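Hey team,

Sharing the Transposase (IS66 family protein) run so nobody has to redo it. Sequence (117 residues) first:
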Amino acid sequence: MFLTSSNIRVYLAMGITDMRKSIDGLSILVSEHLELDPFSGHLFVFCNRKRNMIKILYWDRNGFCLWHKRLEKHFFKWPTSKEEIMTIEKRELTWLMDGLNIHQKEAHNSLKYSTLY
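Structure output:
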C-alpha cells in the first residue's frame, strides 16, 4: 500500500475535518491551511468530528489517491494537540488505524546511529 517507501512522512491534520471534502478540497486544505505540498507523496490524514472516519490523501506519481475508512462500531483514538498538524511515524499510523493510541508506552523507541562502535 502507501507505507512501503522509507522516505514518506505522515501528517495528521489536527482537529476535525469535514468528510464531505474529497481530493480537491483536501489538497487545497493541505496547501493553503497547513502550508504543505500536497504533491510531495507524503500522507495527509484527516478525521471527522465523530472520530469514526479517516481519510488519507497522497500523491502517487501521476495522480492523487484518497483512502477512506469508516468504522461501523468504535472510534479512532485521534490525538489532541494545540498545533494544526502533527507528524507521526508510519507505525503510529498503523496503530491509529488498528484502534490503538499512537503513544504506545511499551513500544521500542527508534534508534538512529551514525557509526558502529
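The chain has one domain: 10-97.

Ping me if you want the raw files.
A.
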